[in-house]
Amino acid sequence: MTEHTPCEPLTWRQYYTIFMQKKRLPYVDYYLGNRRILDVGCGEGGMLERYNNWQGIDVNQDLVGKCQQRGLPAKVMSAFEMNYANETFDGIHSAMLIEHFPPNEAFDFLRESARVMKHNGILLLTTPGVKRIWNTFSHIRPYPPAAIKKLLSVATEGYITKSKLPLKLLAAHATTSSLLDPIWQRSDPDGWVIVLSKTGG
After folding, report:
1. CA atoms of 75 and 179, how far apart (whole Å)
2. Per the domain annotation, does 97 fall within a domain?
3. Residue 83: which domain range?
4. Which of the chain's termini has less CB crowding within 10 Å, N or C?
């Protein structure tokens, strides 16, 4: 399991090496590992069970209650107002959450994530691809890598905010249900793993 902060995208060789060793989530293992990570939108705590150095937050009190009943470190908290000091975490994990936000809220979520992450920290997002985004009524809009890059740019997204996020796009991995994903990156996949790194202290 990788414990350093990765500065390069995961290669297909590294992906299969991690997969064969761990039999689980190579993207998460490589970019986040078992460092001090905040799982935003932790749900019932699946990731908190896998990694013993993670903490979770969710706005759903019932889901957080289920985590706490199993002894998992979860709190009721908003993704827009994380009750943690600046630079508390080595990274942020957020699965299938950002697509529930309109652009202004997505920006607020990314800004708050950057605030609680350390310099060079990693923010790992998973989100549905464009062709699958409308399968769920609560989804607001897709956030493929191109949209995230624009959201990080004041020049193109100035109608949302006049400030710039201290984040850069490190990697974007297309995902389907195939083990060939790391080699064959589709242009319109089922989903994305989007990796951002914090560029400012």
Report:
1. 34
2. yes
3. 26-198
4. C
